[in-house]
Amino acid sequence: MPNLLKSALRPLLLLPVLLLTGCNMVVMSPSGDIAAQQRDLIVVSTILMLIIIVPVLFLTLFFAWRYRQSNTAATYDPEWHHSTRLEVIIWAAPLAIIIALGAITWISTHKLDPYRPLDRIDAERPIPADVKPLTVQVVALDWKWLFFYPEYGIATVNEMAAPVDRPITFQITASSVMNSFYIPALAGMIYAMPGMETKLHAVINKEGDYEGISSNYSGDGFSHMRFRFHGLQQGGFDEWIARVKQNGTMLNRDAFLKLEKPSIREPVRLFAGVEDGLYDAVLNMCVRPGQMCMRDMMHIDMMGGAGVDSHENRAKLQHDNRHAGPAGGHGEAAPGATFPATGNPARSEEPAEGVDGDQQPPSMNHDTHDMHQGHKAPAEGSEGAAPPQLNTNGSTQP
Q: What pTM did the predictor assign?
């Protein structure tokens, strides 16, 4: 019977090995210098931590066996409570490892900063002075990836390429929700956010076909938000550029507005030409006609705001309104705007609900210093500050 039990348990020992066969080890076997340095950081950090973990696990098992109840030869000393030598070992070793990990982390954080331009192709080769980085502008859409190549005037969907041993500068943004741009063989993850631009510097050192993904959940099509990254020799990259220009169509604002609509398993698309300023319009969230660009809105805010005339900009600042009323194509009214606490719309001639028409609210004016040059606090007797607001689901405020 024991022999049969052992025979039955042996296949179970192979189960962890079988489970590991389904793992993709690209993170530990990358093809780009930045990803390789990140892999080395993982290995070094793990080894340093194992210096403590392995002895602790071994000693736990050893003490359990050495001081078991049946071992009468083990020393029994119920009055023991302190050992200076043991205390030094217990505290000095972890402290040294924490200091080492802290130093490595601090150095790597600066050295592998995604915004930091590269200073080498790999561990043995610096970047030649005459090499110009390849700029790739990345836009995360629902649920696909759009790549602009401003140097060549082309764009692609769910496919990109780069020459081997040439630095790449990624400029990354999104059209709606936040995503995370990730090519495991090339470099680490970096977020793609609407209205913002993040950067990533990397280089591919081996020719091959690699997978890129979104590593941040972003909705229904997240699982299929993948693309192919081709690491090519310069000749192969030139051929890829020529193929895109030969077989691609034109990407203008109208085509982009159709492309950005949510879709799943989007096929590879090629664009031989791109309308001037399209990526900048995507970044500033002003592709649709009549929208105010983010840079213009920020300029107005920096100058102190537009005052009472700012209500005219409201429609221009509605960006992700695909589900907001008839404009979004769903026939539902948009959620109501805020209403004053009085119960009446702003600038209404009617008295406030629950307030006598002859009764005047107490003045809310105070002696304050002007926060912006050229603007003064309201004079006594003038209209005071606006009453507090309440969130309601009423009709839209004019």
A: 0.70
